[in-house]
Design a protein that fits this description.
Blueprint lengths: L2 H20 L5 H24 L5 H27 L5 H29 L1
Helix pairs in contact: 1-2, 1-4, 2-3, 3-4
Length: 118
């Protein structure tokens, strides 16, 4: 996948999560999780932009690891939303799938870059 498309996908993930959080019920738990997932999901796209400005292969790998961590955290919060019954699985299925795909592509990119570095 090209850089421009991946930038758009990671940005759309954050925007979609913001839309999901806006629909959460008003409760302390939902609001706490909502803040966390908005932070992690929007960080995916912001950190991928940093990847695109990396100064070396090592720098790019390090920045991609941050993207991976934030995407994995987003996946975690989506799981918490469903397992705590705040949302139904059908309400987060598309976002969970997109998050998993972003994680997989990020991990594949890291492996590719490590192979080039060796």
């Amino acid at each position: 996948m090209d850089e421009k498309t991946f930038k758009e996908r990671t940005k759309r993930l954050g925007i979609s999560v913001i839309g999901l959080v806006a629909k959460l019920p008003r409760s302390v738990a939902a609001e706490t999780i909502g803040r966390q997932i908005v932070r992690s999901s929007t960080s995916v796209g912001a950190n991928y932009r940093a990847v695109c400005r990396a100064k070396s292969t090592a720098d790019m790998i390090n920045k991609l690891k941050v993207v991976e961590e934030e995407a994995d955290e987003t996946a975690y919060w989506l799981e918490v939303l469903t397992e705590s019954k705040i949302l139904d699985q059908t309400q987060v299925a598309t976002l969970a799938k997109e998050t998993d795909e972003i994680i997989a592509m990020t991990v594949a990119s890291i492996k590719t870059l490590r192979g080039r570095k060796s």
